[in-house]
Amino acid sequence: MIHIHSFVRRQTAQSPFTSWTVKDEELVSRIKAGLPNAEPGYRDGIVLVPINADGFFSAVVTLDADMQLIAEYKARFPGEDPRKVFRAKGCKQPAKTVWAVLYRDYVLAEKSENESQELWELISVNASPTADEKPAPMPPETLIANHFELSGGTATKMTDSDFVKALRESVMYWKDKVMVEPT
User: Fold this and answer.
1) Per-domain residue ranges for the chain?
2) pTM for the complete prediction?
3) From its phi and psi, is residue 93 left (phi > 0), alpha (psi between -120 and 50) or beta?
4) Fewest C-beta atoms under 10 Å: which of 101, 117, 135, 141?
5) Is 48 helix (H, G, I), strand (E, B) or coil?
């Protein structure tokens, strides 16, 4: 029913992304338990599933004037065009909320990115250090890459007005936040 896509494997303790200490079987079990409370993602075929936060670590930090930013221009994985990336040196924090991002098979099939015959594939795990009731919006750069179908982006299928609304929400959330570069 749920396949853990290789894209999510980049999320390790040493990475600038959410990480966790639970085993794959436990992760899938938590996702299945959260499915009845799933929220729609940014388009049909993508859902955000709330899962138990025990053992998860958030890489999201709120910026302050003394933080030093690190900038890179690199691809997320081989074959993808590079992107601008900004991070801050810091430490991940225990997560208070966690959302699993699942893509349906037909969404991944649009770019032949399916890795299994399962209906759902786990593409990302997004954790927050705060007790948010709703999932954080995707970062503006990710939303833009998806909407304009840039290399590695999954089409949003949003109207221009829906895109502007989503972009506004994203910018307002991420204006003072970045992911950490673990120290």
Assistant:
1) 2-182
2) 0.86
3) beta
4) 117
5) strand
